[in-house]
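Listing S7. Sequence submitted for prediction.
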Amino acid sequence: MPLRSRLVVALCALYATSAAVSLRAQAPQADLSRPLTFENALDLATSRNLGLEAARRQRAIRDAAVRTARQRPNPDVGVDFTQDTPHFGVSFNLPVEIGGKRGRRINLAKEELTLADVDVQAEMRSVRHEVRAAFYSLVAVDQQVQLADTALTIARSLRDAAQLRFDAGAAPRLEALQADLGVARAETDLDLARSARAVTQATLDGVLNLPPQQTLALAGTLSDRLAAPPFDSALALATASNVDLVRLDKEIAIEQRRLDLVRAERTPTPVFSIGGVFNSPDFTAGIGGSVGIALPIFSRNQGEIAASIAATSQLRAQRDAMRRTVETNVFVTLAKIDAQRRQFDAYQQRLVATAANLETLAEESYRAGRTSVLGVLDAQRNLRDFRREALQFALDLQLLLADLEEILGTALP
């Protein structure tokens, strides 16, 4: 590669690197005065995420490659001084590319430039997955904190009731101690939930390019954005937008352009020369010219052409295999989403409601003196477990939808 071309590429790479390093200071300010919705979080990540911005900067390097491809061969000038006659000579040589080599070289560089958009699309796929996973994980933790706080309130109410019954002589000391132990456990659960929130919040802060200690208030529930397209629609979306398929399509097109260039390079490049000799005893000055051209007798890029054809065939085979993999992944993920939604609906509509009714009846029965505190504690534990499992099913459903978006290569409609 000519020195000038290497300098252009190096300067563009240096610019991209320095811009990515200074991105934190240049990122737009985030408005966190209001609760953050999922759409707001995704928009914020799109504008501030460091990895996504670094992928966008890759385009400058590929633009430099197009500029390099546009360059024409430089002429060269020679000057000779000798003791023989003539004593002084000057030559000027100019290579002229023919056969469409320059145009095909530019077409190849422009086709490679489209990979910059694929790089951004691939990074956006990861950012979209990370935002959904981190956002709804934080939503789940917030709900766990609320459940733990509610459980603590109920445990304290039960402890007060047990203490009153013990003071009245209607219950043994053991029941009061057991109720007090339930309060201690509820307090521990609440502390753990709050600690988990700090960790999950830092994860979302990182995706949004915010300080890890930045406090975030979210607006939304785990029941939001649960719609998934049917298999045929999802497969059509994946075929058009899946990043791996798009990249393979681009690489096949690039290899076709490379094959065109290799074939064009079989045409020799003529070198036109003009020169003069001076200071000779026989004449004052002499002018001459010539044309030189390499004869393509032994090498006509046969190996390069065969390699390019083989590479194209391999890429097409890889695309067929990738499309089958994408089709399978879409079907499997949709099946998992359907099964997960059924489990979530069962917990949300029946199991949690039934457990809540049983907990209420057990507490009323205990206050009426018809059952022991162990029955109430057992009912509270069952309700707490059912609610946690329902939250986990809802979060797992959101994560499966994030996986589906990653397969599709685009946001769910």
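Caption to Listing S7: primary sequence and predicted structure tokens for the chain studied. Residues 120-269+301-408 form a domain with the Outer membrane efflux proteins (OEP) fold (CATH 1.20.1600.10). The beta strands are 76-81, 88-95, 271-278, 285-292.
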